[in-house]
Amino acid sequence: MNDTIAAISTAFGEGAVALLRISGPQAVEIADRVWKGRKRVAELIPRMATFGSIVEHGNRLDDVLLTVFRGPHSYTGEDLVEIAGHGGILVSRRILEAILRSGARAANPGEFTQRAYLHGKMDLTQAEAVMDLITAQTDLALRAATEQLEGRLGDRIRALREQILEILAHVEAFIDFPEEDIDPDTDALLRGRIDNALGSAQALLDTASQGKILREGLRTVIYGAPNVGKSSLLNLLLGHERAIVSHHPGTTRDVLEETINLRGIPLRLIDTAGVRPTEDEIERAGIERTHRQLQRADLRMRVVDASLPPLDQISGFTLESHDVHPGAHELLVLNKCDLGEHPEWAGVLAVRMSCLRGEGLDPLAEAILAAATSGSGSRDWTCAINARHAHCLERTSEYLRAARRAFDDGLSAEFIAEELRAALNAVGDIVGRADTEELLGVIFSQFCIGK
């Protein structure tokens, strides 16, 4: 925190503008060493871009706009200087090297945002939202990241923490001041308060799958027998011809993967080789990859030929329950409905479509969205937790359940208080109660340099 750090904050490559940042106690002084303008950097009006040049040893490196942000009114909470120059790779690198030679240190990935967190400019959920904002692939993911950056998730976490704190405060007051005749709450009321906290934790945990989808995409594997229209379905969803379509079986022998935006949800579409008995070594390898993809899928779309009976098309797809990805969903797609539907498919729950005619896309999209929401019926994706949040909330729930069991078993108030304290610490870890170096290292190492 005593170092002054610097980095190029724009993405690597050529562009119209490159942005460099300097942050720390000597940011203004170091910027002055490479700046040539009408005024010294220390004399510039904060938050006003000023034209000048970056020079080193009397040589002008670039004409730039320089802006000073004085702490604590800056992104990092400390003095911060931003230099906007021409977006060439070489010129921006030369400016950064001049800044580093003038006394700054090269910033680590995420170090600017880490300093913002350490200076109280944001909590950990907001810091993580910065990375979600950068990597968002869809408008829905972008909106969720923006909501989290504005503190919506942090507010819900703090509300849960307040619930637990109130329960703990009452129990500890009963322990510490027995002479005051403090009512320890009736049995039903205390159980109810603990159950309410458990409900709040579970409501947040229910958004974990949605958070995973927004950040990583819904891993959707298209599979089925040869010649049922798997590649045609992939091409139809993509809107262009990505996979080769042929009436010859075994055309697709490897895995094809593409990502699309389905009503705000990033959908990772994976087309696989058709499963059938074969002596062809290469085709067999493709079929083995199909099974491996199915084991990792969040959603499995089994495509069948609606004009043929089911028995001819469902062999070879049986997966042992322990091989299936937890929480994975299965969706049956009856393709080639333009050829007529075989009587044995009557009454079978499935999405009926014709890839040849482009029919059935809307019902398919609705079925995929229903699978993505895990049957919860909720379409509010703006408060979706990540894996770290889920781990903390699972621990919180475990401690709350332990507190309830202690209460139900008639144990003393000291045992209940101990579990409640552990629950309070676990939920506090989400927003940054524990600023251990290891935790911060894990979180901010995922950021890009300059952010």
By CATH, the topology of the largest domain is: Rossmann fold
Question: In terms of structural class, how would the helical and strand content be classed?
Answer: alpha/beta
The total number of structural domains is: 3
Number of helices: 14
Q: In sequence order, what are the helices and strands, one letter per element?
A: EEHEEEEHEHHHHHHEHEEHEEEHHHH
Write down the CATH class of the largest domain: Alpha Beta
CATH homologous superfamily grouping of the largest domain: P-loop containing nucleotide triphosphate hydrolases
- State the separation between the terminal residues, measured CA to CA: 16 Å
What is the tally of beta strands?
Answer: 13
**Share of residues in helices:** 40-55%
Strand order of the largest sheet: 3-4-5-6-2-1-7
Strand content: 15-25%
Q: What is the radius of gyration computed over CA atoms, rounded to a whole number of angstroms?
A: 29 Å
Q: What report would you give on this structure?
A:
There is one protein chain. With 451 residues, the protein is an alpha/beta fold. It folds into 3 domains: 5-121, Gyrase A, domain 2 (2-Layer Sandwich); 139-207 and 385-431, tRNA modification GTPase MnmE domain 2 (Four Helix Bundle (Hemerythrin (Met), subunit A)); 216-372, Rossmann fold. The protein is 42% helix and 18% strand. The protein contains 14 helices and 13 strands. It has helices at 27-34, 89-101, 111-118, 124-135, 139-149, 152-176, 187-205, 208-216, 230-238, 281-296, 361-372, 387-408, 413-431, 437-444; strands spanning 5-8, 15-23, 35-36, 50-56, 59-69, 80-87, 105-106, 218-224, 256-262, 265-271, 299-305, 329-335, 351-352. A 7-stranded mixed beta sheet has the order 3-4-5-6-2-1-7. A hairpin with a 2-residue loop joins strand 4 and strand 5 (59-69). The longest helix is centred in the middle third of the chain and has 25 residues, at 152-176. The two termini are 16 Å apart. The model is unreliable at 315-324 (pLDDT under 50).
